[in-house]
Amino acid sequence: MFRLRGPTNKWKYWWTLVSGFVETLFITGISYGWASLVYVLKLDGYFSGYCVNVTREEDDTVFADCSRQDEHFTRIMTIALFTNIITRFPVGLVFDCCGTTVTRIMAICLFTFGTLSISMSNTDTPFLLYPALPCLITSGSIFYITNLQVGNLFDSRRSIIITIYSGAYDSSAVVLLFIKLLHEDGVSFNGSFLFLTLCSIGLLLRTLFLMPRGHIPYPLPEDFTYGLSCPSRRRQRVKDEGQMEEITKLQFDRNQKDKKVEASHPSTSLHDPKKEEDACFWSCLFSWLFLWHLVWMVTSLFCHSIYLAQVNPILTQLTDNDQNMVSHYTNVFAFIQMCGVFFAPLIGLIMDRHKHKRPAPGQSKREADLRSSSPALLLTSLQCFLFCVCFTTPVLPLQYLTFVLQVANSTFLYGVHNTFIYIAFPASHFGKLSGVIMSLSGLVLLLQFPIQYLIQNHLHGDPLYVNVGVTLVSLLTFSHPLHVSLYCMKLAQRRTTGRLEVNA
Fold first, then answer.
1. What is the mean pLDDT of residues 86-95?
2. From residue 410, how far is each of 169, 402, 406 by CA, in Å?
3. Which of 60, 229, 241, 469 is 20 to 30 Å from the Cα of 45, by its Cα?
4. Model pTM?
5. Can you give the pLDDT at residue 235?
6. H helices then E strands: how many in the chain?
7. CA 358 from chain center: how many Å?
8. Is 63 helix (H, G, I), strand (E, B) or coil?
9. What is the DSSP string of 109-176?
C-alpha cells in the first residue's frame, strides 16, 4: 500500500514510521485526557481546601460546593492550552531553522520536567500542576510536529500518514485513562508519571537514531538516509549535496510539466510551482488562502478549547454531582478518544483520492491537491458545527454523541490543517506558518478567562448561553472551504482560457 522512494534504507523508513506512530500514540497528546486525571486528583484531595459547605435554602440541606476547586482545574487546562498555542511560532521557527534534533531535544527536556513535576506533586504542593501541564502539552506538540515529516518518506500516501499521526495524537489522551484505571486498582498515579519520565530515554534514542538532524525532504531523493548510523560527517555532507542536486532535478522536472499554465498565467496562484520554494514567508503569510485558513483553524480550536476546559463541570452539572456517573462518562470519553486513530485514515483517503487519477490537461499538482482538500475542509467544518450543537444541548445521553463528534472533528481538524499547509505553501515555511496559526489562536483563547469568570460569577455556573454563542461562532468555519472551492474554480477557468488562447 505504501510505496517507498529509494531502494535502500527501507528498514529504517519503516522503523521510523512505526516508532513515530507509537510515540505519537502514547506520548504526544496525553494532556488532552485531562478530564481523567482531574477525577484522580479530586479523589486524592488536590485543591480540596477550596471546597466549602453550603446550605440549600429550599430544604436546608448542607452540601459541599467545590466550584472553586473545579475553577483551579479548569484554569490549569486553560493555561496549558494557551501556553502550547502561543509557543508554536517560536517552536516552528526553531524547527525550520535548527532542524529536527535540536527541536526534539528541547521537547524531551520539557516532557521530563512536566512528568517529573506531576510525579512529585501531592495535596500540599498542588500548584506544581500549573507549570507541569503546560510543559507536558507543549512537548507533546513538538514531538507531533517533528513526526509529521515522516510522511515524506512515502510517496503517494503522504496525506494518509499525516492524518494517521493526527489520529494517534488525539488518541494518546487514553494514557491518562489507563493511569486513572490503575489508580482505582491501587497504583499511585505519581508512580505512573515517574514511569513516563523514564520514557524520555526512549525518546532520546529515537531522536538520535531514527530521525534526521535536519529535515526529511519532499520529493525524497534516492537512497536518503539519516541518523547516527551514517559512517562519517564528510561522507554525509557529500551525500547531502548529492541529495540536494537530486531534489533540484526532480523539482525542475515537475515544474516543466506545468510550464504552459505558468507561462500563460503567472499570477494564477500565490506559489507557482516554478517559484514555490523561493516564495518568501511574508507573501505566504498575507495570502488569502492563509488568512481564511487562519480563520478556519482559530474558530475550530476556540470551540474545542471551550469544551475541553468545561467538560468535567458540564458532566458534574448534568449528573447532579453524581461522581459515579461522572466517572462513567469520563471513562467513555477517554475510550472514544482512543478511537481517534481509526477516524484518521478516512480524511487522508479523501485528500489522497486523486493521486492515482490522471490530472486534467494543464492542471498542476498543487491545484489538484487543493481541489481535493476542499471536501475535507467542508466535512471538518460540518463536524465542528454539529459538535457545538450537541455539547450546547443540556441532555446527558446526548454527550455520547458529543464525545464521538469531538474526537472525530479534532482528528480531522489537525490532519486537514497540517496537510493543507504542506499542500498550499512551501515546505520550508511549514513550521513557521503552522506556528503563526497556533500562536494567533492563543490570543483568541485569552477570551476563555473572561468567559470562565462570566460563567462562574454571573451565570451561576451554567454555560448554556456561552455555548449557544460558541455554536454561532462555529459557522465561520464554512467560509474556508467555500473560498478554496472558488479559488480552484478560478484556477480552472484561467487554465481553460489559457488553452483557448494557445489554440487560437
1. 89
2. 10, 12, 6
3. 60
4. 0.75
5. 54
6. 22, 2
7. 32
8. strand
9. HHHHHHHHHHHH--TT-GGGHHHHHHHHHHHHHHHHHHHHGGGGGBSTTHHHHHHHHHHHHHHTTHHH
Other Cβ atoms less than 10 A from the Cβ of 35: the count is: 24
The whole-angstrom separation of Cα 209 and Cα 218 is: 20
Nearest partner of 229 among 19, 13, 2, judged by Cα: 13
Q: What is the number of other CB atoms lying within 10 angstroms of the CB of residue 334?
A: 24
d(CA 319, CA 326): 7
CA 503 distance to own-chain centroid: 47
Three-state DSSP at 251 gives helix
Q: Which residue has 471513562 as its cell numbers?
A: 331
Spatial neighbors of 336 by CB under 8 A, at least 6 apart, are 403, 404, 407
Q: Any residues with CB less than 8 A from the CB of 6 and at least 6 apart, and which?
A: 220, 221, 222, 223, 224
Q: Are 103 and 52 in contact (CB under 8 A)?
A: no
Q: What torsion, rounded to 10 degrees, do the Cα atoms 426, 99, 151, 383 define?
A: -70
β-pair partners for 55: 62
Question: Could you tell me the pLDDT band of residue 446, with boundaries at 50, 70 and 90?
Answer: confident
> 233-251 as b/e, with b when 16 or more CB fall inside 10 Å?
eeeeeebbeebeebbeebb
Please provide the size of the chain in residues: 504
Which residues touch 433 (CB under 8 Å, ≥6 apart)? Answer: 92, 281, 284, 285, 290, 421, 425
> Do 474 and 299 contact (CB within 8 A), yes or no?
yes
- At residue 143, the pLDDT reads 96
Residue 411 grid coordinates: 482528528
* Pair 446, 198: CB distance under 8 Å: no
Tell me whether residue 196 is exposed, middle or buried, using C-beta atoms within 10 angstroms of its C-beta: 0 to 12, 13 to 18, 19 or more.
Answer: buried
Long-range contacts of the stretch 258-266 (C-beta < 8 A, 24+)? 258/362, 258/364, 258/365, 260/362, 260/498, 260/502, 261/362, 261/363, 261/364, 261/495, 261/498, 264/494, 264/498, 264/501, 264/502, 265/494, 265/495, 265/498
Count CA atoms within 13 Å of residue 419 on its CB side.
33
* Pairing status of strand 62-65 against strand 52-55: antiparallel
Q: Round to whole Å and give the CA distance between 231 and 235.
A: 7
Per-residue model confidence as pLDDT tens digits over 76-85: 988 898 888 7
Helix (H, G, I), strand (E, B) or coil at 52: strand
Q: Residue 300 class from Cβ within 10 Å (0-12 exposed, 13-18 middle, 19+ buried)?
A: buried
Distances (CA, A) of 462 to 154, 304, 454: 49, 18, 10
